[in-house]
Amino acid sequence: MVIHKRITRTMLDNKAQYLGSLVLILISCLLYTMFNQLSVNMDHITSSFETQYVQEDASFVTDKALTNIPELESKFGVVIDKGGVFDYAVSTDQSLRIFAENDKVNLYALIEGRALSGGDILLDPAYAKAHHIKVGDSIRVEGKDFTVSGFMSLPNYIYPLKKESDLLNDPDHFGIAVIGKDDFAAFHRGSSFYSVKVQGDPDSADSILAELKNELKSQNTVILKWINIDENPRVTAVTAKMANMNKVGAALPVTILLLTCILTGIVIWRMLKKEAVMIGTLYAQGYRMREIMNHYLRYPFVIAVIGGMIGTLLGALTLKPMLGFMVAYFNMPIDSVRFSIAHLAVSLLLPLLFLLISGTFIVRRALGHSPIELMRGGGQSRKIGFLERRLSLNKLKFSTKFKIREQLRSMPRSLFLLFGVALATMLLLLGFTMKSSMDFLLKDTYEDAYKYQYEYVFNSLQQGHPASGEPFSMSPFTETANGQKSFIVYGVRPDTKSISLADKAGSPLRFDQVIVTKPLADRLNIKQNDTIGIISKLDSGRYSIKVDRIADSYIGEYIFMPLTAFNEMLGYPQNSYLGVWSMDKLHFAEDQLLSSSSASDAKAAFASVTQPIQAMLGIISLMSFVIGLIVIYVVTSLIIEENKENISLMKVLGYKKKEVFSLILNSSTYIVILGFIIGVPLLLASMQAMFQSVADSTSFVLPVKINYAYLGLGFVIIILIYELSKAFSKKKINRISMIEALKSRAE
Amino acid sequence: MFMNLESVQKSYQTGDVSTPVLKGVAMGLEQGEIGVILGPSGSGKSTLLNIIGGLDRADAGKVTIGGIEVTGISDAQLTEYRRDCIGFVFQFYNLIPNLTVGENVEVVSNISKSPLKIDEVLKAVGMLEKKSRFPKELSGGEQQRVSIARAVVKNPQLLLCDEPTGALDFNTSRDILKLLQQINKEYGTTILMITHNTAISAMANRIFKVRDGEIVESTVNESVMPAERIEW
Ligand SMILES: Nc1ncnc2c1ncn2[C@@H]1O[C@H](COP(=O)(O)OP(=O)(O)OP(=O)(O)O)[C@@H](O)[C@H]1O
Ligand SMILES: [Mg+2]
Q1: Range of B161's domain?
Q2: Fewer CB within 10 Å, N- or C-terminus of chain B?
Q3: Which of B8, B9, B11, B12 best tests ligand 1's pocket when mutated (most atoms within 8 Å of CB)?
Q4: Is residue B41 assigned to a domain?
Q5: Is the ipTM value over 0.85, yes or no?
Q6: How would residue B87 be classed by pLDDT, with cut points 50, 70 and 90?
Q7: Is B14 at the interface with chain A, CB within 8 A?
């Protein structure tokens, strides 16, 4: 039908409005495709990794070697593999954790290169990349040369954290490596641990593992450390991060799409109003409702299809590099890149569906008028709204009155602007808030709360007093009521200098009492003076403790109690301890230590990993800039379009250019400012919710902080966008001729 | 009679008050005739024409056009009736601004069963050379010619014109009237036209004078004058 020829012409005549909608759709489809295809691939990669390379169900450390592994295996229907590990200090601040190759559980996955043979070593790719090591290079471990035969990943070290309590990995200072069993044995050093995989029904894994623990206890074997796979942060970091990514992947594009629907809806609504006479004429000539509907739905259709296709295509193109980035970050092998047809279809069809539905709704409402009403100008007759009539504007200046009326007369347009500015504010401040929060967390945790520089944990109980440093003890527990997820109970000296915690009011807490950190108190729902029952993860012993105070800290699910009480509770010798905190570097024999770490390590890790996050936040900020610009520009051009006659008339009446700009363009200033003001608490609330859901899967509470400087900067940027779109619009106003006023009256 | 109206009534509701606009109108027109409706502003001429054209509904009475009883059919059937039988020419042309002259005519030929050739119609209204211009590049008279071409292209049984020369000067008006008369001759189209201008009635077969929603005078003109000889 020839009438459809109008579509391209109309769109070209109103480029700003249609291009704006198109770009918004494009952005939302790009984000949707990128996040969702990425998460499909990551899911697939993790699950195939877990099964193919026999990921453990739990790993543990005992005080003496197990001698009856085959009996245990057949008795409980499990596979147990004895692993060996030691940390090789490459330099003072860089260490490589060397594992012996396993043959039953936690098999290494080759990412690049060839499998191990004698004299070979496999490295984790992030470490290799950070230190510019290539396949075929030679590296020296403890005076012995190894050939790097390839890069690998271990199913129990997907995210290679140095310490389980670390938040972030740091390939500059820490990496993992695997060497052959014989090569490992030749070093005559390192400690052993056991990895168990339950065969058969995964649901019964928990009870089988509990029985295994009891059996070991009954054989007088002390379990020094036990960690289930679902609380191993080297694995759960991946699942938690992916879950968060999925949330972002679902929420963000849909929000932008919603904005697009409103934008396109307003554009079409405006068009229908402007074309009421034309629609009435078509109607009078015998066009059917269906045919008119069909014509007007082509506008959103074209936008949705083009925007959807380009956006989806761009999203698909980003998949490979993003996957590469994620895999490098999480250390897993990619066997193949897949495309989920379902997500592809959603990305292409969802904008279409949204826009067609909102389009149908609007076209239907407009076509509800009879042909005669439409030809008389239809809904174009400027009705005075309820609000406008109620407001008494008489006392205000003319220019203020004009601006307020302008907003009131087009509520959908004003609401859209408000919503758009609020969203842009949220996206913009998201980055800033994240950065403020992390800075705060870093300072609060590593400078104010945990004051020690080095932590050494032994692989067996120590007696008496350490030569230097401060003794402490630790042991993992679960709560009787809340099962599953474990936390750590520390025994510390009442006069400890290593830790400093404060209550909510900010007054420091003494360590001669039982203190629970806030993340744990939140999770277990503990209040001051509650008594809770706890179960040891190591020997399943049950204890009860009374909580004296709650510490207002953000990282770690910990309970602190006096060391003597700790030993007494667990039945350990009076002067025993398991670790030492120190301000200076201490030297212990490697085979005595389970782990060692330093605060500067942790800080460096934090610093190095915030870099990609900052890059991501940069992208989000840029996107928010674009979205804000589109929304404000489109609304400004709508205002100009609707006021064409007024502008023309003002010019005829002798208004100066500056006066016209001010009247027409500044009418949305209040809305933009209001949008920003609404955006801030909205962001803080949604961040709080997001952080809360992160807190459920990790053991830290991110405080939502935003610093006033950033808030000011955000405001300046929003105003800048507003001024920019006003500057773009000035040309448009200048182009409106004075004849316009006279001409359009005739129609 | 090709067109027949019997005691057509219509009133408009404004708030609680009901204003009668048509108070039992009866009129008729034979196939191939030209009819003219005369009357002061507000007397109900447009309302009458809209009811005949199926744009509006009568409250009571009967309207029959070419055997179809327009007063008794559904909204959807009314659309089909307009689509197949009626051509409209409006005072303010109502052309689609971003379609060319040719395309504006095509808009209607697209939806009709047996349309005339677009070029033939454009030639008949003298707009063939300006086929690819846009409406804003035309004068008022030229726009009205296009609007007539658009109404005629579907070869309607009845052409309804609401003050087709209302916005035009004397010479242009006469050209338009000539054109309508020519179409009436060439295609045998029945034409019903509203005008304020008594002089125009000289070219009609039947003249209806409307006042206050009633036909106060209905005359048959035995000596139809060619449009080019009309003066006012
Ligand atoms: N939608 C409406 N609601 C209320 N009253 C209406 C409506 N449409 C028309 N009227 C009234 O009906 C009367 C007849 O209107 P109509 O348009 O038929 O007059 P007309 O004879 O065509 O006048 P003109 O020569 O000025 O075009 C007028 O008094 C008008 O005010
Ligand atoms: Mg009229």
Answers
A1: 30-56+85-223
A2: C
A3: B12
A4: yes
A5: no
A6: very high
A7: no
